[in-house]
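Friendly challenge for the regulars: who can give me the structure tokens for this chain first? No prize, just bragging rights.
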Amino acid sequence: MIQAYDVQNWKKKFAFIWIGQTFSILTSSVAQFAFVLWIGLETGSAKVLAYATIAGLLPQIILGPFAGVFVDRWNKKLTMIASDSFVAICSAIIALLFYFDLLELWSIYLLLSLRSIGGAFHSPAMKSAVPLLAPKEQLVRIAGVNEVIQSIALISGPALGAFLLLNYNMSVVMLLDVVGAFIACVALCFVKIPKANQSTESAKSVYRDMIKGTTVILKNKPMSWLLFSEIIARFFIFPVVAVTPLMTLNYYKGTPYQVSLVEILFGVGLLVGGGFLALLNQRFRKISLAIVGYIALGIALLICGVLSPHLFTLYAILAIVQGIAVPLYEGSITALIQTQFDTQYLGRIFGLIGSICQIPAIIGLLFTAELADQLGVENVYIAGGIALCFCAILICCIPSVRNLEK
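First reply, four minutes later:
Bragging rights claimed.
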């Protein structure tokens, strides 16, 4: 009876969630872009940017499997509120260190790692709560709206981040992130999230719950292959994300405002791609949309890597194509996970998948840190483009994955 009531009122609940998340994601986007731009301007090193990205990923890799187990046991709303609050505390500390001019590279890595701990719990809690709040047939549409919110943040975030960094200081930027996290916490207070059906495994040890989550994933062979393709994709995508500011600054000889322009255009693409995902979810299979997303992003990255440094305009336009492609595969894969596995395991599954998929990303970033400065950031794009096209071919060549939803 409770779940039927929740499903009938899913739009109202998501309205509160989306309002809070819009502010939180927007201010985080402002802070993240300003931070990356500040590092790029201060050091100009792909190695430093890669290490900063690793610092933000490593806690999620280590804690992801454990966090997923506890997310399945704990109250999901309180978990998300606690996670946002912890991120706000870390951002406030960073603001103070900037204000007193005490920030050094080692403290940047440490605080980015601490800030990432909140994400290790928030992401699986949020994703596993969605099927408890909305009808199954609306999950892809919700993923599309989430991508639209992300795109709005990416459109506005870089412009605001560059403006605040160049006209004020990083203390103001990080305090804005604190305000966004507070608004997200307040919005969640108005949402009641029903409990998932608990299995008997939840009373056993954390280790056994982790093993159970792994077993559930491996039993679904088509999804295991799809997640394997996602591991390959992330190995090459995260280095691209890490060096994008340097691609604009160094390879295309751009300015800080051109760095923000590329991010804004990428956000415009995300907005369009999220809209496509919301509209097309009933017309096309999710696996088909994922394949199209891989191919489109792969070709766009490959072209960016071989372009002449004088063709910045075309590079900027291709940022829109990249943005359109990301929601098609990210949103579709998320919705497939939510529909292919029982809700009682989703916290563990998202936690495990987040960790497993990000381990290769760390390796890729370490590779980038050592070689990008010597071989050129454009080669990172070329490698990423080839890898994503390979992922699309891999999915198409495995009948059980290709026919996953039939």
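The chain has a mean pLDDT of 76. The chain has 15 helices and no strands. Your move, everyone else.
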